[in-house]
Design a protein that fits this description.
By secondary structure, the chain is an alpha/beta fold. The chain has a domain at 35-124: 3-Layer(aba) Sandwich (Rossmann fold), CATH 3.40.50. It contains 9 helices and 8 strands. It has a 5-stranded parallel β-sheet with strand order 2-6-1-7-8. Helix 1 (16-27) packs across helix 9 (211-223) and helix 2 (35-47) packs across helix 3 (55-64). It is globular, with a radius of gyration of 17 Å.
Length: 227
């Protein structure tokens, strides 16, 4: 058999989304970054004037909102379209305001339960590479191949810094590194679906590897799978 479902987990800025996207292109699979759903709910919370600390409001939005993920319709660097209530919010969910609050919103049990159901519905259709922080452990434990992509906090902060600078945004490495540490603490210690490798995951530390080296290593492991 071939792998129908591939799960990729890892901490913030580890390169897991880029890895998943490139692998999906190689395999002609659906690329599904589950973090976009949490970002979409966070954007909704802010857009409707709620506080990110309002757990009830965030949960209600997660339970009632319809979040669609579609192939990219515009050639502007996006990897997919994110549609909420017929509105394209693909780039709106990538703002600094959303970035600053998404971990808080994603920590709420009701939000995670509601969005996990949507993610599983998509994942169980197969031929999907799903990326997030709890895919192999919670969202899609049935995945036949699981990857946990890690890198040192310093390297992840450096990558995020370079990404922001390349986009023409102001960036401070020290502040970014502090945020990486804070994000790791929140993600790893939350009561519901904490960040951790699945027991059967292939763990790769990419601190000294380029993204292309990681892609080729994983693709080699996938190709070793007997039909």
């Amino acid at each position: 058999m071939t792998y129908s479902m591939i799960a990729i987990d890892g901490p913030a800025a580890s390169g897991k989304s880029t890895l998943a996207y490139l692998l999906a292109k190689k395999l002609n699979y659906l690329y599904f970054d589950t973090g976009l759903m949490y970002r979409a709910v966070t954007w909704l919370v802010l857009d409707r004037g709620f506080s990110p600390s309002d757990e009830d409001a965030a949960t209600q939005l997660a339970e009632t909102v319809t979040i669609d993920v579609q192939p990219a319709s515009i050639d502007d660097g996006r990897q997919y379209d994110v549609i909420v209530e017929e509105k394209d919010i693909t780039w709106k969910i990538r703002t600094k305001e959303v970035e600053a609050e998404v971990s808080t919103v994603a920590s709420y049990p009701g939000v995670r339960k509601a969005l996990t159901a949507q993610q599983r519905r998509i994942g169980l259709k197969g031929q999907v590479i799903m990326v997030g922080r709890d895919i192999g452990t919670v969202v899609l434990p049935e995945a036949e191949f699981k990857i946990y992509l890690d890198a040192s906090p310093e390297e992840r902060a450096r990558r995020r810094y370079q990404e922001l600078v390349a986009r023409g945004e102001k960036a401070d490495y020290t502040q970014i590194l502090e945020k990486v540490y804070e994000r790791d603490q929140l993600d790893s210690n939350r009561a519901v679906a904490p960040l951790k490798p699945a027991a059967d995951a292939v763990i790769i530390n990419s601190s000294q590897m380029s993204i292309n080296e990681v892609v080729e290593k994983i693709f080699f492991l996938i190709q070793k799978n007997p039909d």
